[in-house]
Design goal:
The complex is a heterotrimer of chains A (378), B (316) and C (290). With 378 residues, chain A is of the alpha/beta class. Chain A is 46% helix and 17% strand. In chain C, strand 1 and strand 2 (134-136) form a beta hairpin. Chain C is globular. Classes of the chains: A alpha/beta (378), B mainly alpha (316), C mainly alpha (290). Chain A: Belongs to the leucine-binding protein family.
Chain lengths: 378, 316, 290
């Protein structure tokens, strides 16, 4: 009998050590290239969270290994790395696709190989129509437009001018905004654009300013452009409400534009930016506070909204693997689809087979820049 | 055995034998990317190696070829394969239109003009969203060849199919380039590379020859763009970007712009380098820049000719 | 009217940046016939080093001086370590070397600094100056003044000083220059140092308006190159006029035609110039040696 027990213990030990073999999670992110501004905090976030998770004992006792590649924002490279992740590294899930272009290139690989893929890019096409293996964490551009239009209507604004970047982010948001404007009761009567590296947007803003009837201006863009638009806006003394997109929702934007020029700018942002201002019973408050504190401690800077997208993707994935009790891609996929009430930095996520994003407009907060900091409008 | 036959045999052998050493399907993907790039770079060999002209905008033609495969099937009802040929014809036509006035001039002017042309193509692809769906890219229909193979009983994975298909196109491309090398046009081109004025003196129509080389190389780049689009089933304007143009020239010069085998070597090195360097991700750009500088400083003709000479020197 | 004025002001602001980049191209091109694709990286270094030195607590003027000196040193290193050893290589190889250098410098910059956008305060505040119904930022005037000052300096250098003439002589005929006792190596090193310093100055002047980050170099180099082509490669007057003209063309395109194709203007201009007058506005005709 004793020997039997000993054998059983040994077997159990063997099983345990087999089980602590690593769970491999793959990521392909634009750490360099034109989208490095987004990808850099995403990669840093993933590295930090994996380290923290492993230090805390991993998932279900198994350590997690992150295989992270930098696709430089090149969709062709993103596809190659995605192929490498599923074929060579044999990961159980992929996080990544910083840009919509990179995401769209990864999707066929993930679908073919039947590996769950959580995208960090904005476009609605990623999850609409719903694809079996594809999920995403950021708001869609359409939701950002809707949130902004909602706020405009509340202020009695119906006729606006738009100025958009010609990069993927700006072009996609412009398209979505123009599409939903009529049903939101907003008329876009001036439509200008600028190149992603432009240094001066006063000609475009002059045209918008001189268009009779414009009541507010919306800038769809991220990175360099919006800070220049904001400064030029002040230079020209346009004097109308200025809305920015969620693409600039970081402290860096205020510094870059100058707090004087940025004063009064409104934009839809995530809970991440206003952690301190959230109600105490807000389910996102502790999540956001913990993430901001850890990131700050690790890298000496405040995380951006984009880092938050990666945070949520990793949280959804670890939650799913924990609940599935298995690192089988198909079981992980099924578990992601039944994610319920998971508080992330971007929203409280509840996935269904019909909804691979998992939250609605209410996850967006309308923010206004006051005295060089964020305030909640509603 | 002639160099021509040897080159073709080596290339074909690489395509056929390498898969025996592939641990996973991912290697087929990298292989097919090498072949696609080598095809484009073979065009650069014709332009730069044979005719001594530099283009800094060949990615523009790859963009035209790629988007032809995305758009022509939808808007013109063409089969994706025919769309690739349509794109090649379009690229050749654009190259002819731009090259004709430019190539009458001597000096860098083609480099500058092609730079402008390439960027304009990328800009049109990104901005004409009504047609191209903008910077986020567009789906490309399936070529259907793999399904056809399956119908006759040859069942291989998609990545494997594209590996062999790209390999085949690359070898055919190399064969044409090598034939061109030995043709009267090729001989005249090389004469012109040596001394343009001397070539003019012996009665060679220099401008026309250079134009021919430019158009042919544009067709190569276009077909490479089509191959890439068809195997990715998705394409974005990045394919026409300036850095992609630079990459093509660098591959050619690195391997040895004068030789087709050198083109393959250059393509192979620069395609696999980012894959090998993933461990040193942060240093990737630094290393890439360093490799480019070192090869140009110490092996001016490119890796292959320099190495070949060294080997030959030792034999003597 | 005020509309047109605003477009012109915008054009001058942007044009001053292009002119400064184009002026940087001029010297190296004059000395060696090489189009230095790392010129944009010099501008980036000027802006980034100033930013980080300023963040570290140095006063802005000192930070700017350090940036310019450090970038000039990078220019010298580029010449000594990469261009000089490749002496005699065809120009294509030299161009590839400068492209390699630009990728290398970018790679180092993203490691040493970071990948975020940066800016430091304008020299004399952000209060716009009203002029004929339009406004311009004081920093734009600094940029314009910088471009003109560099132009005058270069013009005087090339026509009034022995060293400047030596640079031109080296470009015309290297061997002959050597024969008349010009130290060709030194001329090349000097050209790289000067070009890099001018590039860094452009970065210092422009960053308060344009922002800076490790990867701004390519876009700047391309536009500056277009400006230099428009004016006539190698001619300081051409670089200045070409830069401002390109800025104006872009601003007027954005204002009156379409902001989508504003960026295309530069490259359409390149093609038109090549078709119509390949030497640029102020370039001189060269003859070929057999």
């Amino acid at each position: 009998m004793k020997t039997l027990t000993a054998l059983a213990t040994l077997a159990a030990l063997g099983a345990a050590s087999a089980a602590s073999a690593e769970i491999r999670i793959g990521a392909t992110i634009s750490e360099t290239g034109p989208a490095a501004f987004l990808g850099d905090p995403e990669a840093k976030t993933l590295e930090m969270m994996v380290e923290k998770l492993n230090a805390a004992g991993g998932i279900n006792g198994e350590q997690v290994e992150l295989v992270l590649y930098d696709d430089g924002g090149d969709p062709n490279k993103a596809r190659t790395f995605a192929t490498r992740l599923v074929e060579d590294d044999e990961v159980v899930a992929i996080i990544g696709g910083t840009t919509t272009g990179a995401t769209m290139s990864i999707i066929p690989v993930a679908e073919d190989a039947e590996v769950p893929f959580i995208s960090l890019a904005g476009a609605i096409e990623i999850i609409d129509p719903v694809k079996d293996w594809v999920f995403k964490t950021p708001h869609t551009d359409r939701m950002a437009c809707a949130k902004i239009f909602e706020d405009m209507k509340a202020r009695g604004i119906t006729r606006i001018g738009m100025i958009s970047g010609t990069d993927g982010f700006g072009a996609s948001m412009r398209k979505q905004c123009l599409e939903i404007a009529p049903e939101a009761g907003i008329e876009v009567i001036a439509d200008e654009s600028y190149g992603p590296t432009d240094a001066d947007m006063t000609p475009q803003l002059t045209n918008i300013k001189n268009r009779a009837g414009v009541q507010a201006v919306l800038n769809a863009g991220f990175g360099q452009g919006p800070s220049v638009v904001t400064r030029n806006y002040q230079q020209l003394a346009v004097g109308l409400p200025l809305y920015q997109s969620h693409g600039v929702a970081s402290k860096g934007f205020i510094d870059l534009a100058g707090s004087g020029a940025a004063e009064g700018v409104r934009l839809p942002g995530t809970a991440l930016l206003v952690g301190d201002l959230l109600a105490d019973d807000d389910p996102q408050k502790p999540v956001v506070a913990a993430y901001v504190a850890e990131y700050q401690a690790e890298y000496g800077e405040a995380p951006s909204t984009f880092g938050g997208y990666a945070h949520d993707a990793f949280a959804i994935l670890t939650d799913a693997i924990t609940r599935a009790g298995s690192a089988d891609p198909e079981e992980i996929r099924d578990a992601i689809e039944t994610t319920a009430g998971l508080a992330g930095t971007t929203g409280v996520v509840t996935m269904t087979p019909e909804d691979h994003l998992g939250f609605d407009l209410s996850a967006f907060r309308m923010l206004e820049i006051r005295d060089g900091g964020w305030t909640l409008v509603d | 055995m002639t160099t021509k036959r040897a080159t073709l045999l080596i290339l074909a052998a690489i395509v056929i034998v390498s898969p025996f050493f592939f641990p996973s399907n991912y290697y087929y993907r990298v292989g097919s990317l090498i072949f696609v790039n080598a095809l484009a770079v073979t065009g650069i060999v014709i332009l730069t190696g044979y005719a001594g002209q530099v283009s800094l905008g060949h990615a523009g033609f790859a963009g035209i070829g790629g988007y032809a495969c995305a758009l022509a099937p939808v808007h013109l009802g063409l089969h994706p394969g025919l769309a690739a040929l349509f794109g090649a014809a379009l690229s050749g036509g654009v190259a002819w239109l731009v090259g004709r006035p430019i190539l009458r001039l001597r000096g860098y002017y083609l480099a500058v003009a092609s730079l402008g042309l390439g960027i304009l193509v990328a800009m049109v692809l990104a901005n004409e969203a009504w047609l191209t769906r903008g910077p986020d890219g567009i789906e490309v229909p399936d070529l259907g060849l793999n399904d056809a193979l399956e119908a006759i009983g040859i069942d291989i994975r998609n990545t494997q199919f594209w590996y062999f298909f790209s390999g085949l196109v690359m070898v055919v491309g190399a064969w044409i380039a090598l034939n061109l090398h030995d043709s009267p046009t090729g001989r005249a081109l090389r004469a012109l590379h040596g001394s343009e004025i001397a070539a003019r003196v012996v009665g060679i129509d220099v401008a026309r020859l250079k134009l021919r080389a430019f158009v042919i190389s544009a067709v190569y780049a276009s077909l490479a763009g089509s191959l890439l689009a068809l195997q990715n089933k998705f394409i974005t304007p990045d394919v026409a970007g300036f850095m992609h143009s630079i990459e093509m020239v660098t591959m050619a010069v690195l391997g040895g712009a004068g030789s087709v085998l050198g083109a393959f070597l250059g393509a192979a090195i620069l395609t696999t380098l980012p894959q090998v360097l993933t461990v040193f991700q942060e240093y990737e750009q630094i290393l890439l820049g360093l490799v480019m500088m070192l090869v140009m400083i110490f092996m001016r003709e490119g890796l292959l000719p320099s190495l070949a000479r060294r080997v030959r020197g030792r034999e003597k | 009217m005020s509309e047109l004025m605003q477009f012109l002001m915008s054009g001058v602001t942007v044009g001053a940046v292009y002119a400064l980049v184009a002026l940087g191209f001029t010297i190296i091109y004059n000395a060696s016939d090489v189009v230095n694709f790392a010129q944009g990286e010099f501008v980036m270094l000027g802006g980034m080093i100033t930013t980080f030195a300023h963040l570290a607590g140095l006063p802005l003027p000192l930070a700017a001086l350090i940036a310019i000196a450090a970038t000039a040193a990078v220019g010298v290193a580029l010449d000594k370590l990469a261009i000089e050893p490749a002496r005699g290589a065809p120009v294509v190889s030299l161009i590839i070397i400068t492209i390699g250098a630009s990728i290398f410098i970018r790679g180092v910059a993203q490691l040493v600094f970071d990948k975020q956008l940066h800016r430091f305060p304008a020299f004399t505040g952000d209060a716009p100056i009203a002029l004929l119904g339009a406004t311009i930022l004081p920093q734009s005037l600094w940029m314009l003044a910088g471009a003109i000052a560099v132009f005058i300096g270069l013009w005087a250098f090339f026509t009034r000083t022995l060293t400047g003439r030596a640079v031109l002589a080296t470009s015309n005929n290297r061997l002959a220059a050597q024969l008349v006792g010009i130290n060709v190596k030194w001329v090349m090193t000097l050209s790289f140092a000067l070009s890099a310093a001018i590039g860094a100055l452009a970065g210092v002047l422009a960053t308060p308006v344009t922002n800076t980050s490790y990867d701004i170099g390519i876009a700047l180099a391309l536009k500056g190159f277009a400006a230099a082509m428009l004016g006539g490669m190698g001619n300081p007057k051409g670089a200045l006029v070409g830069g401002i003209l390109l800025g104006l063309i872009e601003a007027l395109t954005a204002g009156y035609v379409s902001s989508v194709y504003k960026d295309a203007a530069a490259f359409v201009v390149i093609l038109v110039v090549l078709f119509a007058m390949p030497q640029g506005l102020f370039g001189s005709k060269t003859t070929d040696r057999v």
